[in-house]
Design a protein that fits this description.
alpha/beta; single chain; 7-stranded mixed beta sheet; 5-stranded mixed beta sheet
């Protein structure tokens, strides 16, 4: 509560995030192991000046978001509402829900669910401006030079960047003002670029509040903070008569192969576990269980392709992998370069990012007795 007035926040999280290039909407991608939307909600959860949170999301994610908020301890979420066709429709749906559920609300803030780095100070500055003026929006000055396209041969002309601001959220309003602005927009079949534009069109001045350059909106993968991760993998397979020996996608002439449900490529299995571990995506047993007949005899290079797809969906790139095969026999020296080429091709990286080496245990243990082969891998990924 601020000044004996209740404040509700509408968190707009119904976007598909197509520019992100991920199958998962950007608001659900993780930063530092935490979904973007949760990071956003936590800012408002801990503020005394904010009383209620109303989240708007895609219809198929309503239950998912509700459970996500509960698990994260976001107790101020009053409703998770299905969004509309466009952002304007989604916010209006939330406004109606506020009127229905919390009619005594005085101030309404609208914030992008994909702006997780907003600070409490910016939010408070907007609320205070709403209290003074009735409508406010967080903005930052333009850093780059600005040009404007023209219809003549000049093509474009320079403009004074000091006259322009980059608009952020939250945008805040007296609830009655925002509702009036939305109703007028719908009556006139008008579509605005943001909430402030609707309010200005309804005849109300909007105060500019100084925002922060760190309050970015996660729109493309370049907006995500750089994140580096490391994972390890280890696998063991026993020798078995009558099987092919496949290592690193290379069939190696030998009198025995490795026992397994798939082609038992122990080198690729260790690598897959390292990559999945780095991304926090479980292990190969979860994704490719040996109880599933679909994976009977399958090439592990095909499974590695599926792991690469999982990394792509989470927007991770492979930095490098170092793989150590542990076997008394056979010697892998003649085949290492082909293994590197196979792995680099599937992971979409240069071969110098992949290292394969072999070692023995000097006759000790099960590998020393030539009962099987072990492999360990270390992989680093980044986003």
């Amino acid at each position: 509560m601020y000044g004996n007035r209740k404040t509700a926040v509408i968190v707009a999280a119904a976007g598909r995030g197509r520019r992100m290039g991920s199958s998962l909407p950007k608001q659900f991608l993780k930063i530092g192991g935490e979904p973007v939307l949760v990071k956003t909600l936590k800012v408002f959860q801990k503020m005394d000046a904010v009383d209620y949170i109303f989240v708007v999301t895609g219809g198929e994610y309503v239950d998912f978001v509700r459970e996500m908020a509960e698990n994260a301890g976001i107790t101020k979420v009053e409703s998770v509402i299905e969004g509309g066709e466009e952002r304007q429709d989604s916010v209006f749906n939330a406004l109606q829900e506020i009127n229905r559920k919390k009619p005594g609300t005085s101030y309404v803030l609208v914030h992008d669910g994909a702006r997780p780095f907003v600070t409490e100070q910016t939010v408070m500055d907007v609320i205070e401006a709403v209290d003074r003026k009735g409508a406010a929006v967080a903005c930052v000055s333009m850093k780059d030079s600005i040009r404007k396209t023209t219809d003549d041969r000049m093509g474009s002309i320079g403009v004074d960047r000091d006259e322009y601001f980059s608009v952020q959220t939250p945008q805040g309003f007296r609830k009655a003002v925002l509702i009036e602005a939305y109703e007028k927009a719908y009556d006139d079949s008008f579509r605005g670029t943001d909430d402030a534009s609707l309010v200005e069109r309804a005849g109300y001045p909007v105060e500019i509040v100084r925002g922060e350059y760190g309050n970015i909106k996660i729109t493309t993968k370049e907006d995500l903070p750089m994140e580096n991760r490391i994972g390890t993998g280890f696998d063991v397979h026993a020798f078995e008569e009558g099987r092919r020996l496949v290592l690193g996608g290379v069939e190696i002439p030998y009198n025995r192969g490795l026992k397994g449900h798939s082609d038992a490529d122990v080198l690729i299995h260790a690598l897959m576990d390292a990559l999945l571990g780095a991304a926090g995506l479980g292990d190969i047993g979860e994704h490719f269980p040996d109880s599933d007949p679909a994976y009977k005899g399958i090439s592990s290079m095909v499974l590695l392709e599926k792991v690469k797809e999982l990394l792509d969906e989470s927007l991770y790139m492979v930095a490098n992998a170092d793989i150590t095969l542990i076997a008394q026999k056979p010697k892998i020296g003649p085949y290492k370069e082909q293994m590197r080429d196979n792995i680099a091709r599937v992971l979409g990286v240069d071969r110098d990012r992949i290292n394969v080496k072999g070692t023995t245990t000097e006759g000790l243990g099960f590998t020393g007795r030539e009962e099987g082969i072990a492999c360990e891998a270390v992989a680093s990924i980044y986003r």
